[in-house]
Amino acid sequence: MYRRIISAAAGGLLALGALAACAAPSESPAAPSSTSAAPDASGDPAGSPDPTDPAAELSCETMISAGTVEALTAAGWTAQPKEFVIGDLALASGMVCFWADYSIGSDHGQLYGWSPITADQAAQAQESLISDGWRREDGPQGVYFTENPEYSMGTDEDGYGMTYLFGDGWVTLSDTKQGLLLVTWTD
Known about the structure:
This protein is α+β, with helices and mostly antiparallel strands. It has helices at 2-21, 60-63, 66-74, 119-131; strands at 78-86, 89-100, 110-116, 135-139, 142-146, 163-166, 170-174. A hairpin with a 2-residue loop joins strand 4 and strand 5.
């Protein structure tokens, strides 16, 4: 059911984007969906917050791009933060946010997460994911771990379901690999 939530949420955001495209020119455009965001030439996600901004703290609203927050809140969605957990490893300094419209009974939503992580914790988490059947893939931004698509209830256009990205001292999570582009938090 959790994966259906993710797939349905992506469809809802695409429909919201289509409606916004038909709106009068005086209205602000809709934010990009998780399938249309792209990194800039440096390989960093577009719209990353300024890490020198002392007012910025990790939250569901600062973890992802401002355009994504605007699109989700315009759709009536709010976020519920949860502890960032990978297998048996709880990352107390991190956060996972599940965005949905909690005013109605639904299985639509989107998931984003970010946490600092030590090298030992990353090794433990990655070992746990491999033992649970997750697939490892090295990339220019770090090491990706994605669930087996045979068991995924929702995937992006490239066939990736829920995916972790391990970088140097941090880990991100989204309901799809493409959704990781929307996690713009830097510490």
